[in-house]
DNA sequence: CTCCTCTCGAACAACCTGTTCTGTTATGAA
DNA sequence: TTCATAACAGAACAGGTTGTTCGAGAGGAG
């Protein structure tokens, strides 16, 4: 009894989520219709609405798979060391991430992903001694914006690079300025 | 004869664009229908399709007003000095920018705005002596991503700050790292 | 095996789209 | 001012999507 739910329910939800990812990769998020989804998932129309109120709800359920954006940061190593593991994780789940965060993805998901990452960044900066305030908020936005932009372009294959290269340029680009602006020591 | 077009044409197109901006601010881009648009603009259905093939075409026509993202950078002052004038311009056109680039805006416009800004950033870095290559591409993405993230949050009023504050934190956060990573001197 | 949940598939009204048509009005040129 | 014409309004249209409802049937839990 995985998850304590009927096997049929698992099968149905999984089929719908899988179908959504496939269809987003083919046509982008917005053009995907519920009719497309149930055709691809081979599921009855009423069945769909028994599980999800609309298309967007499927999106959010698929989002759980992107929980790596919530990974707890380490505060002892070099700054923003969440970066390398995340890029590696993104590479492993490239299909999913491209569907959700890539160019063809929806706007809502991007905002959600950004907010997850913001928490990670803010937490690390606070742990390193930054003081809460407007400047911290701005800096967090910069760091998050830069990282997410890299991820978006990377999964869309507008950038060709290895996780290590992405990580190196990302950290080298934002860490010095941000840490100095917040008066935080570079290494612990 | 402004623009050498029939006055009725100007009136119609303007009304439709204005209606789109209003409706995006009220409900977001995606839920806006052509039927909404023509009702708000008080324009006949056939008239709409005589001017635009679809909703998205209106969006792109409104985009022309955001040409300030294409402003030519100066290469003599401090790095990334396009930032302050742009933030000021954004403040003046807050309504429009929020509709197009803000949370309720569409994904396509965001990509378009990002690509405009990327050109500006890349041009400046090349003028400062950076060498073309993968590292430059990554750095440009970081800078652009950080800037656009600030703009998005600012117009959506998730950040409260003056253009000068935004400019200061933005430049302080990204300039040192990026210039160092590209082996470019800090000041000319 | 039995019961109950889940699923199927059809049918539905309501909405939106993009096109076509006819008749009307405003515009710019003469 | 007059006038030909380009632009407009408004209705009607087929085709597609949405979200709901219903009864019949299949599949899993116990």
UniProtKB/TrEMBL annotation, chains A, B:
Record keywords, A-Z: DNA-binding
HTH tetR-type domain residues: 10-70
DNA-binding positions: 33-52
InterPro entries named in the record: Homeodomain-like_sf (IPR009057), HTH-type_Tx_Regulator (IPR050624), HTH_TetR (IPR001647), TetR_C_Firmicutes (IPR039532)
Molecular-function GO term, any one: DNA binding
Domain of life: Bacteria
Name of this protein: Transcriptional regulator, TetR family
UniProt organism field: Nonomuraea pusilla
């Amino acid at each position: 009894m995985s998850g304590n739910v009927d096997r049929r329910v698992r099968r149905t939800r999984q089929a719908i989520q899988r179908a959504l990812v496939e269809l987003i990769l083919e046509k982008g998020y917005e053009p995907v219709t519920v009719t497309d989804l149930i055709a691809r998932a081979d599921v009855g129309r009423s069945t769909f609405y028994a599980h999800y109120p609309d298309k967007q709800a499927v999106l959010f359920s698929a989002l759980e798979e992107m929980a790596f954006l919530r990974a707890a940061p380490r505060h002892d190593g070099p700054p923003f060391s969440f970066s390398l593991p995340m890029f590696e994780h993104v590479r492993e789940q490239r299909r999913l991430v491209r569907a959700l965060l890539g160019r063809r993805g929806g706007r809502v998901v991007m905002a959600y992903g950004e907010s997850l990452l913001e928490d990670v960044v803010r937490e690390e900066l606070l742990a390193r001694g930054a003081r809460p305030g407007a400047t911290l908020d701005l800096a967090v936005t910069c760091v998050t914006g830069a990282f997410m932009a890299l991820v978006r372009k990377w999964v869309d294959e507008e950038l060709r690079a290895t996780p290590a290269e992405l990580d190196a340029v990302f950290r080298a680009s934002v860490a010095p300025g941000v840490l100095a602006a917040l008066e935080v020591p570079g290494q612990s």
